[in-house]
């Protein structure tokens, strides 16, 4: 980015949290109605940032400890190829022949010999205190004699701290920070889930537009989008280092895409520079380009989808642009801009809502989202219930055909068998298998089982409640299901905020949509039109 803007530096995540929070309050806080649901929603969105920062910082410390441990365990050949400055430089005492030669050197080297003598005396005293014996001393140089390599190792072990203990303390501190961040995220997401559950009961929804004109909203949105996407385009992923929680169940393509870091790796991992594009081989370079294209396209689809839904379905262009700007301003978007597994499913779910009047297209988008990351499959009871009076067959055909095409594409590439691909795609394995995220930081994974059962009951409940379903309840309940996924997601649950964030923003800004039911707004299918015309013709004949 500095190539385009002189002296530009990517803002630190903490700095961006403060700036975006102030800007969010200034643009969306309803000052003339302090005790309003809109203000509560804005506060909940801002409270997601501290937990994300704590998880990010704990992960950064954990990665730094992992890399420092790898450097410490390198062999001699590795250190020759990749020289690095060790953390603790231990002086090697001089032998008798070396000290006699050093005595004839100029005065400039005398200070170095004095420093070596002092260090050797420190080693001598510490070794004498621990071993209870005095080492052999050279009377001419007053330095300890090293007759065996093992003797020096014993002295160093006696004078240095236990590295395993230091690393374990640092690792425990990093895990504790991550655990606290996950707990805070879970607490805020629980409040958001309660807010979404009671949303169908809120009939009165006054119009509360952002505190800025449509032109100003457009200008800030375009500028933020350009800055974020340029960060994605100019970033180079670190392919060899674990950069975040794994996706878990999902499509094979999603597991091969790298994570595009949108902040400098030198800040994230303690001083190490980013590799250039020339350092990546051709295959990694191709996957990197694909990941960047998908990430930028997904965010663009989210922004366009929010604006179109506000204009077409809400009848308020200002609300749609306000949703898009708020999505770009939130710290989560800036931190996870390069995560394709976050943004792409969110874009597909949003476009399913945009095409809700066409059940086939809605089924295609929802089927793509479910095939790529598995978890939107639990939205099927809710959406089938919405289309039950009209369009459920077309919606089911769109979902089934899309999933079948994705399964067919699995047979054309990869080294794994089709059975392994299907098990990963549809999550056909035990849910307690090596969990990560909060469930890998001290919580017993067995407690995930009752959470999964409660989630299954909740997703099934939405098939019957609320009734009848309209567009507003479809958006809010879909967001509630994707929020509830975070509590049992075993590979970083709580961090996949993009899966429900656009739907949550639409729920916050939506008007009263009680008249947008499937029986009134969904287009008739060909079979339904033929059946209705035949019935009308029979009545006229009689």
UniProtKB/TrEMBL annotation:
Keywords: Membrane, Transmembrane, Transmembrane helix. It comes from the Bacteria. Residues 100-111 have a biased composition (Low complexity). The chain crosses the membrane at residues 15-31, 37-55, 182-203, 215-233, 289-309, 360-383, 395-415, 447-464, 495-513. Residues 66-111 are annotated as: Disordered. This is Uncharacterized protein.
């Amino acid at each position: 980015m500095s190539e385009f803007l002189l002296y530009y530096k990517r803002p630190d995540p903490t700095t961006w949290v403060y700036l975006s929070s102030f800007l969010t309050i200034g643009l969306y806080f309803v000052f003339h109605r302090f005790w309003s649901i809109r203000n509560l929603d804005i506060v909940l969105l801002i409270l997601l940032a501290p937990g994300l920062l704590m998880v990010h910082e704990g992960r950064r410390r954990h990665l730094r400890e992992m890399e420092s441990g790898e450097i410490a365990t390198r062999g001699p050949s590795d250190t020759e190829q990749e020289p690095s400055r060790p953390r603790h430089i231990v002086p090697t005492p001089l032998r008798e022949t070396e000290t006699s030669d050093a005595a004839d050197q100029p005065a400039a080297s005398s200070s170095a010999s004095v420093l070596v003598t002092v260090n050797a005396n420190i080693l001598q005293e510490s070794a004498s205190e621990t071993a209870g014996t005095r080492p052999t001393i050279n009377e001419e140089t007053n330095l300890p004699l090293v007759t065996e390599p093992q003797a020096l190792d014993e002295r160093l072990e006696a004078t240095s701290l236990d590295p395993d203990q230091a690393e374990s303390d640092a690792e425990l501190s990093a895990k504790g920070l991550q655990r606290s961040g996950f707990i805070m995220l879970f607490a805020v997401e629980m409040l958001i889930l309660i807010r979404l559950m009671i949303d169908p009961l809120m009939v009165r929804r006054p119009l509360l537009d952002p505190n800025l004109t449509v032109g100003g909203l457009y200008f800030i949105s375009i500028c933020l989008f350009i800055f974020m996407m340029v960060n994605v385009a100019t970033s180079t992923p670190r392919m060899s280092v674990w950069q975040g929680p794994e996706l878990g169940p999902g499509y094979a393509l999603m597991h091969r895409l790298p994570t595009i870091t949108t902040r400098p790796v030198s800040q994230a991992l303690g001083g190490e520079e980013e590799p250039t594009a020339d350092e990546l081989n051709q295959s990694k370079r191709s996957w990197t380009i694909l990941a960047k294209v998908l990430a930028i396209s997904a965010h663009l689809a989210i922004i366009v989808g929010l604006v179109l839904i506000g204009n077409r379905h809400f009848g308020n262009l200002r609300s749609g642009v306000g949703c898009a700007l708020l999505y770009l301003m939130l710290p989560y978007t800036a931190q996870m801009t390069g995560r394709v597994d976050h943004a792409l499913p969110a874009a597909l779910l949003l476009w399913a809502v945009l095409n809700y009047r066409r059940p086939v297209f809605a089924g295609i988008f929802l089927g793509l989202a479910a095939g790529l990351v598995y978890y939107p499959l639990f939205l099927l009871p809710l959406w089938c219930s919405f289309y039950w009076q009209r369009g459920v067959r077309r919606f089911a055909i769109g979902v089934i055909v899309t999933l079948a095409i994705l399964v067919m594409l699995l047979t054309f590439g990869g080294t794994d068998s089709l059975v392994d691909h299907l098990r990963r795609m549809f999550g056909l394995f035990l849910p307690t298998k090596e969990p990560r995220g909060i469930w890998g930081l001290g919580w017993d994974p067995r407690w995930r089982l009752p959470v999964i059962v409660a989630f299954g009951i909740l997703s099934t409940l939405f098939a019957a409640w609320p009734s009848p379903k309209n567009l507003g309840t479809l958006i809010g309940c879909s967001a509630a299901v994707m929020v509830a996924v975070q509590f049992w997601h075993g590979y970083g649950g709580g961090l996949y905020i993009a899966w429900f964030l656009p739907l949550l923003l639409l729920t916050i800004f939506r008007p009263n949509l009680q008249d947008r039911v499937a029986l009134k707004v969904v287009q008739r299918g060909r079979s339904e039109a033929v059946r209705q015309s035949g019935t009308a013709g029979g009545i006229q004949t009689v």
